[in-house]
């Protein structure tokens, strides 16, 4: 590895000043050729194309304005009135101006008619209105047709403003001038700076090596066909516990774990990877791998950023998003998401699914009598009992206030009823530090039979209501095959 680097440095030192000068000359000639190509493209392609486009727009504008003139020539009115109306119409055309500059779109309009087809004195309708013809004006000759029999009766000649062409070419021409100027400046800059740039290449490489070594985050260089790392900065040696082998490669258990987890395949891709060596605490790192060529070998530059603390914070936030802060149970939002998921599974695989909904009897009386601190203690203890009375596959959570909900996958109504009764008995046996505090629950149990989520929860809620009506401290369940509509409410 070190021999390869030495040969590369020796090659750089043998670059002669004459070669540097030739490189600068070649670059300058390429820039000059590019400038000429831009100029030729403008004069031979862009400018004629834009002129044709501007002339087309001017013709379309003239046609749209002259259409109103044809309707005035029907021969039913006296020639003097027709002439006055034509003058008024042409005047309005000449007054049509650009709002920004005040320049008229059409500078001059002339009308010539074939009087063999008109019943008016020859020359009585010929008009030529407007200012002097401007330099570069677009000339559009619009045929005039009789409004009734559509015979050609004359020609309207419009001298349109060249502003269409200026609008199309102004910004583009300025841009091309700036581009040409920039290219010429680039040629001059390349001519004088390329030699100095090449002379500084070796210095830049040394600076990059220094930056690589001084980087505060781990960085490694690995050849594609080698298992070990060819280079690693001090931060990488410490973070990955790298050791230099006899072959000059860097290796270590954590490094092998990183390779085993897989490196990113694409440049710009970042991948979160868990690093864990024997006897060490698991760490999370954000890993990137950039393909490159180093000393003529296909390699990749690997960068790592430790995100262990960030992952811990993310895990705390994730837990907080679906956990009730007081009891440590799941919150209502997560319960409904999980219940919807379990209902999908029950529909797909046709297995049983039940739920228990219960709340604490006379909980408001406990808060009013013993205070909210004791009330919170009661909720925490009930949450603890729920965790001990349910299976690992069951999902227990705080439904809201003093109400709790338990989802029991793969449990039919009878099995769910047994769990609910066990919860009721365990809650009644809780001993609290505050004297005189006794807690009982009333609950409802329901088995899923294909109804939608709200209806499923509503069945259990109605049986909970019936348990309270029956005297509290009991759990009631819906008989098999009875939906919400059959409860008698």
Main β-sheet, spatial strand arrangement: 6-5-11-10-9
**What is the percentage of strand-forming residues?**
15-25%
Shape: flat
Helix content: 40-55%
Per DSSP E runs of 2 or more residues, the count of β-strands stands at 16
Walk me through the structure:
It catalyses: 2 GTP = 3',3'-c-di-GMP + 2 diphosphate. Keywords: Membrane, Transmembrane, Transmembrane helix. This is diguanylate cyclase. The chain crosses the membrane at residues 21-44, 172-192. Its cofactor is Mg(2+). With 489 residues, this protein is α+β, with helices and mostly antiparallel strands. The chain folds into three domains: 12-199, no CATH class; 205-310, PAS domain (Beta-Lactamase), CATH 3.30.450.20; 323-487, Alpha-Beta Plaits, CATH 3.30.70.270. 49% of the residues lie in helices and 20% in strands. It is built from 13 helices and 16 strands. The chain has helices spanning 2-13, 17-70, 79-94, 163-199, 201-214, 234-239, 253-261, 308-322, 332-349, 363-370, 372-389, 413-428, 453-469; strands at 106-113, 127-130, 138-145, 152-160, 219-223, 231-232, 243-244, 250-251, 270-275, 283-294, 297-306, 353-360, 395-400, 403-409, 441-447, 475-477. The strands form four sheets. The protein has a five-stranded antiparallel β-sheet. A five-stranded mixed β-sheet has the order 13-14-12-15-16, with helices on both faces. Strands 2-1-4-3 form a four-stranded antiparallel β-sheet, covered by helices on one side. A hairpin with a 2-residue loop joins strand 13 and strand 14. Helix 2 (17-70) runs antiparallel to helix 3, helix 2 runs antiparallel to helix 4 and helix 10 crosses helix 11. It starts with a helix and ends in a 12-residue tail after the last strand. The model is unreliable at 1-13 (pLDDT under 50).
